[in-house]
Write a structure and sequence with these properties.
This protein is an alpha+beta fold and about 625 residues long. It is built from 16 helices and 29 strands. The chain binds zinc ion. The site of zinc ion has 6 residues, from loops.
Length: about 625
């Protein structure tokens, strides 16, 4: 709830042959939706459908009921007020845990994580403890032949969706109900469908990550190298020229899979704050504080033979005295997608011809660049507004075409921007800054108002045959402080470290002594037992011993108190075997290496020895 200090911890315990057993969750109380109820209304539309009934679903990520109520009472959201007074308006419950991919998967399948198998943004392989994106896996071709330094694949690579269970629009397809589903999360690559679908959250950038920006600077004071969600690349300005490279996907055709790169050059005007950028025969001018249009880039993987297309936007942050150039994550080009992002497969091209280019990356708002200080509040907001403008442009093209069946459209803005700007509307927030609040304290409200405008386009189109559902996957709460679960587990003897100064601390879990470790945290708020027969070095016996440990952890976690606020850190703990139904096996993992960044004061205490923590939320 807004104003409350909340902690989130969940404990997973995933059996090899059983789904999510014994999971403990703690969770913030938020707005929620009931997937089953919604699913039933979809089924009703399918079962009795006789050509006239229509269902419109607006999926609004992270729309908080208390903020909504406040903005409606202030008269800022007249269309929501109208809908609330005319229709049915109620709080719904969210998923366990309240993470977007889990909640949207509940909506998509009508099942909880025991059925669809998505219980966190991040899952792990119990044998290697490597984390991986829960919703999809991108695989290179299995077979290849070696030619010098080249590995020539036999057959193409592929992307696989890991969510289980039929999506509601697959059921609609079976019953002949026309439908289109735009940007719904946890649908990459999109499942086969008869209607038009466009993938959303979970769609990677061209590098296969959730989004990796690049920032080029000649500032010697800048920290260079990988940061969470990006890369800071040192460059030199010589004779007012910068030569650098765009970083593309790993070139699996080459031994060692180095990243493919494409050179670009920047000519800096010696007097004016303006540059000319040249890349692959394209030239454009940027003034300081200006964003480029989408620039198409082709990465050569095998000369004259294999290439992959993407697109990115450049932002000139500063020309003088220091050169600072931001380049967005390289997005999959909708006009020529390197991986499937739509059904039918040519739909994204047709859409881009009509709507212009757009972010295809699932989480397009570059919150990581703001968190890293690469973009400031205003620069990030420009980007976030562009994302919403692109989505509204697609909506404005597709919604008027809707005639029959079911129409779903998803908006990400409220979630991502509430993450970034709650601090400026809440004087109690540790990140509050009065001067910045005066400038951007109304950012969240303005995004809510834009969603209200979208609703304003829909309401006049409703007729007696049309049902409208506006729903969110969860609400929102401020993020004042972090609780580091692994620190707590370490301090209470559940995790033991080796006294091995020579261990490679860049490796996750490098210093953990698994022969004495009984439980570990992984994912956004998950906790797992180090179970014998499942984890590679599991020591806790399945059955009574594991049950007793879970009970003990649950009880102790609920007593943890924030010493500063004097309030409970963890408000709720859920055990998977108690809250999930279904028989989904957890799939084989993919390696996922993009998580970095310890957060929270507690975490830093041993972050040098135990570098990876997963406490950021999205
Ligand atoms: Zn969400």
């Amino acid at each position: 709830m807004p104003g409350e200090v909340v902690g989130k911890v969940c404990v997973h315990d995933v059996e090899g042959s059983e789904p999510l057993k014994k999971v403990v969750w703690v969770f913030a109380g938020l707005l929620l939706f009931c997937a089953t109820a919604l699913f039933l209304s979809c089924q009703r539309a399918g079962g009795d459908w006789h050509g006239e009934q229509k269902l419109i679903i607006l999926g609004i990520d992270g729309m908080d009921p208390q903020l909504l109520k406040q903005f409606m009472s202030e008269g800022k959201m007249p269309n929501f007020s109208k809908l609330a007074s005319q229709g049915s308006y109620r709080l719904l419950t969210t998923s366990i845990p309240p993470q977007s991919p889990v909640a949207w998967s509940n909506l998509i399948t009508g099942m909880n994580a025991g059925g669809h198998g998505i219980f966190d943004f991040i899952h792990r392989d119990p044998k290697t403890l490597e984390p991986y994106f829960s919703a999809s896996q991108v695989k290179p071709s299995k077979h290849a032949i070696h030619l010098g330094n080249w590995l020539v694949p036999l057959g193409g690579g592929s992307a696989e969706q890991l969510r289980k269970g039929p999506a509601f629009w697959e059921i609609l397809d079976q019953h002949g109900v026309p439908n289109s589903v735009f940007r719904i999360p946890a649908n990459f690559p999109p499942v086969a469908a008869k209607g038009e679908t466009l993938s959303g959250m979970g769609t990677p950038d061209l590098r296969g990550t959730y989004g990796t920006f690049s920032f080029y600077t000649d500032d010697p004071a800048a920290t260079t190298g990988a940061v969470e969600g990006g890369q800071i690349i040192p460059v030199q300005v010589e004779n007012s020229q910068v030569k650098a490279s765009l970083i593309g996907p790993d070139n699996t055709f080459r031994k060692g899979s180095p990243a493919a790169t494409e050179p670009f050059s920047v000519a800096i005007d010696p007097l004016e704050s303006v540059v000319r950028i040249a890349v692959q025969g394209q030239e454009f001018v940027l003034r300081e504080g200006e964003w480029s249009d989408w620039i198409r880039i082709e990465f050569q993987l095998i000369p004259f033979f294999g290439n992959v297309k993407g697109m990115c936007r450049f932002y000139l942050k500063q020309a003088h005295p220091r050169f600072q150039l931001y380049v967005s994550p390289i997005n999959i080009d909708p006009a020529d997608p390197a991986l499937p992002i739509s059904t039918p497969s040519n739909y994204s091209r047709l859409l881009s011809e009509e709507a212009g280019e757009f972010y295809t990356q699932g989480i397009a708002e570059d919150t990581k660049a703001l968190s890293a200080g690469v973009l400031d509040d205003n620069e990030y907001l420009q980007e976030a507004r562009t994302v919403l403008a692109e989505h509204r442009r697609i909506f404005d093209i597709e919604f008027p075409k809707f005639r029959r069946g079911v129409f779903f459209f998803y908006f990400s803005s409220l979630d991502l921007n509430s993450h970034m700007f709650w601090r400026l509307m809440d004087p109690k927030h540790p990140g509050y800054d009065a001067a910045r609040a005066a400038q951007n304290g109304s950012a969240i409200r303005e995004f809510y108002q834009q969603i209200d405008q979208v609703l304003g386009e829909v309401l006049p189109k409703l007729d007696d045959h049309t049902t409208l559902l506006v729903l969110s996957d969860h609400g929102f709460a401020p993020y004042y402080r972090s609780f580091n679960l692994n620190t707590w587990l370490l301090n209470h003897g559940y995790i033991k470290l080796k006294n091995d100064a020579g261990a490679d601390s860049s490796q996750p879990w490098a210093n953990v002594d698994w022969s004495q470790t009984r439980a570990y945290g992984l994912g956004l708020n998950g906790l797992y037992v180090n179970l014998r027969g499942r984890e590679r070095d599991g020591i806790v016996e399945p059955g009574a011993a594991a049950d007793a440990l879970i009970k003990e952890l649950k009880e102790r976690l609920l007593t943890v108190t924030d010493p500063k606020a004097g309030l409970p850190v963890i408000t709720r703990v859920d055990v998977a075997s108690e809250v999930y139904q279904g028989r989904t096996r957890i799939r084989d993992p993919i390696f996922w290496s993009a998580i970095t960044g310890a957060t929270g004061r507690d975490g830093r205490r041993f972050s040098a020895r135990f570098p990876r923590k997963f406490s950021k939320t999205t």
